[in-house]
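Lab notebook, bench 4. The sequencing result for the construct came back, and we need a structural model before the next group meeting so we can plan mutations. Quick request posted to the team channel:

Model the 3D structure of this chain.
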Amino acid sequence: MRELPTGWVEANFGELFSSPGDDIVDGPFGSNLKASEYVSNGIPIARLQNIDRNNFVAKNIQFVTEEKARQLKRHTFVPEDILITKLGDPLGKACLAPTNIEKGVLVADVVRARVTHHLVDRKFLCYQINSDFVANEFKEQTKGTTRPRVNLTKIRQLKARLCPLAEQTRIVAKLEELLSDLEAGVAELKAAQKKLAQYRQSLLKAAVEGSLTDEWRKQNPPQESGADLLARILRERRARWETKQLAKFTEQGKAPPKDWQKKYPEPATPATTHLPELPEGWVWATIEQLSLEQKYGSSAKTSEDAAGVPVLRMGNIQSGQLDIESLKYLPQNHDEFPDLLLQDGDLLFNRTNSPELVGKTAVFRSQLSPCSYASYLIAVRFSRSFIPELASTYINSVHGRHWIKSVVVQQVGQANVNGSKLAALLVPLPPLDEQKALLTLLDEQLVSVRQQEKSIEHSLSQSAAQRQNILRAAFSGQLVPQDPSDEPAADLLVRIRASRDAATPAKRTRKAKEAA
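Done. Here's the predicted structure in token form:
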């Protein structure tokens, strides 16, 4: 991509748009546009989530009043303006403003680039902004880590490739032909992906409601009911506490005080009358009743030093599984170890995240050893008579998502479910043999789902790569034939610059200003 095709030239993006001052603008900062000013109907707002590559996503549109739009006149867009994201990961996504929105308002992290002359094809520029070589330029100009962004000056200075106008038209036509076929395939893959997600949820629901093991129950009468199992778990729980207390007294060289057993923190007996009916032999139990301990993770600063102990974070929980590809580390001699080292079977619950992701849950099965976890996660250690994957299945099911919505607390754009609420969560408790059978049946079904999901993700990745191959060919002059009779791009750029200069308001002299 370094060499320019014959007849092409390179220019700054800022040179190709309208007159300076109106060429590239972004949304208002600070208090100029507050969420509290949104109304149910009025002038639409273009936000980050509305902008995808070459596609305006008309979902969850917010509005401001006509009066507010007039106040923000400089920060408005009209049909076929190019809208670009300057914040996020990835940033630099661009699309044309839709023709069915007569006028809209930008938020601070969206840029509007306007072309009022007819010397550059807007779609040609938009496709180019979405190509990987311009995306790499955006990355090189990014500032910040937690909220990476690119400022307007840097966007104006990004390098663009300009070809003859007639060739731009041919490139756009060919791109639309090739990419429409590609996008149709992507749409089918995403539809299949959505159906798999729905099927996964139906499996989780069937598992925690007992319908997955209907036939198994008929052929396998329980050796111990769920109620008897819960009573045994509670006895074991108390016995474990008493053993630990006696060990503590011995270590301190003290005799156990009178009535010391009465200090045992007995889990509260929950009310279950309002809950759905469970299969015969099942019973409701709280996470607190079933667990031995519950701890928040470490808030210590981690590093990339792989010689340390890996620390699982909220991003490592994906679709009910642990993804250990991206890790951070704490030193081996960190002062919270070994207290915050995970044990096989510990359940990890994501207590703080965005509203749609909070509550993600997975079970640690010694994928790494030793291993710790970060502060936005809660680790729950259960009795050996309860299989933790059953709690994870319930929390990740539609029932668990409903519970999360009922207890979540919103805090500055983040959602939180604390340890006390997690401890009070009621989950179904089948007999132990049925727990094993249920999770075996569920895993057999989910293995197929995961394989299909991976296949779709691979195909989507291939489609994304193919899209970039097509764009790379387009902007290296290989997608359509060149015509020697086309006006050279160098001459076109001269005309574009002249058009910008002619549209630039003349600066008033000092005497003229004083006379005014």
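The longest strand covers residues 291-296.
Will bring this to the meeting.
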